[in-house]
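User: Show me an example of a complex going from sequences to structure tokens.

Assistant: Sure. Here are the input components:
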Amino acid sequence: MATSSDATVLLHSSRAGDRKALDELFSLTYDELKRAAHFRLGRGRAGETLNTTALVHEVYVRMVDQTRVEWADRAHFLAIASRAMRFVLIDHLRARSALKRGAAEEPVSLDSVEVEEAGAQSGSDLLALNEALERLGNLSPRLGQLVEYRFFGGLTHEEIAEVMGVSVRTVKRDWTRARTWLYEMLAGES
Amino acid sequence: MKNLTPDRWQRIDALFDAALDEPPERRLEWLARACEGDQALYDAVARLLSKVETAEKALGESVTDYADTLLASLGQEMADAGGEGDWRAGGTTVGDTAAEGDGALTVAGDIVPGGDVAALVAGAAAGVRVGARVGPYRLLR
């Protein structure tokens, strides 16, 4: 992994608008999340659930030099890590799905999914949610980002407000809208 | 509401957003006035308003709420899957793993046998340059 110094420099550069630094930091964070998932869950902790919020915060502590960052830097990193967490999960589910289906993998269709109040029962349910999120993000990039931060990264309303430059009240309102739209899209009505 | 165009979506979403400002018991009355006779628009927004609480129950606050059972099984899968593959690691991180594993290792930092890493055998050795790919490896505590 990159040292905490490397990641901290990339974090500062990406906040200043350096796209290359952002991409590199995302890539490093993606790798580190996979590593953290492996080692956190692989030490004889059979049955332990994958806690995405804990993983996102764990990689922050491991990757970023805490003495050289401000609150806004932290929120910015957590936002990047939330997106990486989404891709770690979805990539894993896609790989698993491909393995089960062999070479003839078919894309998940929202039309074939019944949204359950009990939550996701299978990888297909989560892949369908991801597809709905893609669609929502195309209609509203802002709502799409917010879902990544809140749903996949477990960021607080305050952290999201910092990243997005809006009030906490707006975050709460947008989250309600985004979640309802996602549900509606999953239910196949939108 | 299939085949929503971006314009149509924005119109529905703007009314949905504004309606949430109203007290729950007055939302439909407010919406009817705002839609000015556009029944399809009214129906679309009213449907969303009726799903706010259901969506909250179904999706929760995070993927951990929504997919807890699935994530429990994924946890073990990801733990098992992580032992092989192309890994980037620095000296201190390798030491942190405190685990054994076979796979390929890309050295991203100086490795000091006997220092950060107690033992790194079958591939890596003192003097391995940063960025070199070594493996298979076995990490020992």
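The lines above are the inputs; the final block is the predicted structure for all two components together. The first helix of chain A runs from residue 4 to 15.
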